[in-house]
Design brief:
Blueprint: H1 24-36, H2 43-56, E1 60-64, H3 67-77, E2 85-89, H4 94-102, E3 106-110, H5 121-127, E4 132-135, H6 147-157, E5 160-164, E6 172-173, E7 176-177, E8 184-188, E9 201-205, H7 208-218, H8 251-262, H9 264-281, E10 287-288, E11 297-298, E12 304-308, H10 310-313, H11 317-326, H12 342-348, H13 356-364, E13 365-368, H14 376-390
Parallel strand pairs: 2-3, 2-4, 4-5, 5-8
Antiparallel strand pairs: 1-9, 6-7, 6-11, 8-9, 10-12, 12-13
Length: about 400
């Protein structure tokens, strides 16, 4: 039994994992939105869509309530449904697979690369079958996937590419922005993300027709005029043209996002400083640190993930998590491999041994705090806590 350690930070100073950097500009914009009387989808959402579209160099952008909604509506807009298979990586959040299931299609797992944690193109190729209709690469932690072989497989097999960019707002691959490489790019603005709206998401697409379909599906299947039915242009009649959902973004959320987007590069620079400090100050410890960035790519530095090897470190990953919490440092797990979860095992028959690399990573991985909100003192406390827990 490990002896208790004196906490680096007390309960009153607990370092919350992934706390966002919120400025006075966001607060003022939210207050202005409240005073405007327009709280739902309105002018601020339209402005946020346009500014995000320009930042990414995309053709069309549709703001929605979450990345889960973005993925789900993209699947539906692509015409995916019963009898179709969609390949997803085994190391991802549940939403990636859930969106496929909600669309009525079947998710098929591919393993990940041991160094990048991203979709393994060789296993992807093995999993493509006669019913495969789409592929969902996840740019894990902000590192772009190996897109050349993935794009080749997609083109040769006539598949739809839906990029899961929940971690990858700033990410680029060979000068091309993540989320603009296929038919759909789906983004998350959850509180822990590099850009937050509290809750929210975005769909990018090169097609005006697909963008219109996503927007329609996001608001009950109502005709386009429904988005402006209470505007200063006068009341617009609407018609229900298909069975849709309630997944639109609000102006309250967009008010936060507008100023988060304006500071995105400044915040990215701060996260990179923290990332480099972790690389320097944890290098001698019995942990596996993130692999270096690949040439001709930009890493979004969303998650700083380390692997805890029980034999080298002298304690299990889960004990490491417990002791970091005891030290007053919030940490995360990204992620247990999908076959570890009972629902997927029972419904789809997935087994951890079917994707051994993802399973191994999922049982050893820990994400350390990485937010532009962290002060130098906060970062020093994280490093001190890791060293104390590992006896380094």
């Amino acid at each position: 039994m490990s002896a208790p350690l004196r906490p680096i930070r007390g309960r009153d100073r607990f370092l919350v994992f992934g706390a966002p950097a919120i400025g006075e500009e966001e607060i003022a914009e939210v207050v202005d939105t409240l005073r405007s009387g327009w709280l739902g989808t309105g002018p601020r959402v339209a402005r946020f869509e346009e500014e995000f579209r320009r930042y990414k160099g995309a053709d069309h952008a549709v703001a929605v309530g979450s990345c889960t909604a973005a993925l789900h509506l993209s699947m539906l807009a692509a015409g995916l449904g019963s009898g179709d298979e969609v390949i997803v990586p085994a190391l991802t959040f549940a939403a990636t697979a859930n969106a496929v299931l909600h669309a009525g299609a079947t998710p098929v797992l591919a393993d990940v690369d041991a160094a990048s944690f991203n979709l393994d193109p060789e296993d992807l190729a093995r999993k493509i079958g006669p019913r495969t209709r789409a592929v969902v690469p996840v740019h894990f932690a902000g590192r772009p996937c190996a897109m050349e072989p993935i794009l080749d497989l997609v083109a040769r097999n006539g598949l739809t590419l839906v990029e899961d960019c929940a971690h990858a707002i700033e990410t680029t691959w060979r000068g091309r922005a993540a989320g603009t490489l296929g038919e759909f790019g789906c983004f998350s603005f959850y509180p822990t993300k590099n850009l937050t709206t509290g809750e929210g998401g975005m769909v990018l697409t090169p097609s005006a027709d697909l963008a219109a379909r996503v927007k329609q599906l996001a608001l009950h299947g109502l005709s386009r005029d429904a988005w402006k039915r209470f505007s200063d242009e006068g009341y617009k009649h609407y018609y229900v043209t298909e069975l849709g959902f309630k997944a639109n973004l609000t102006d309250l959320a967009a008010a936060i996002g507008l100023h988060q987007l304006a500071r995105l590069e400044q915040n990215a620079a701060r996260r990179l400083e923290i990332w480099r400090r972790y690389e320097r100050e944890l290098a001698d410890l019995p942990l596996s640190l993130p692999a270096p960035e690949e040439p001709e790519t930009r890493h979004a530095h969303h998650l700083f993930t380390v692997l805890v090897d029980e034999e080298r470190a002298g304690l299990s990953r889960d004990r490491f998590l417990e002791r970091m919490t005891e030290q007053g440092i919030g940490v995360g797990v990204h992620y247990l491999a999908l076959p570890e979860h009972p629902y997927y095992r029972e419904r789809l028959g997935w087994k951890p041994e079917d994707t051994p690399v993802a399973t191994s990573i999922g049982r050893r991985t820990v994400s350390l705090p990485l937010s532009a909100k962290l002060t130098d003192e906060d970062v020093a406390d994280v490093v001190a806590a890791v060293r104390a827990v590992l006896g380094g």
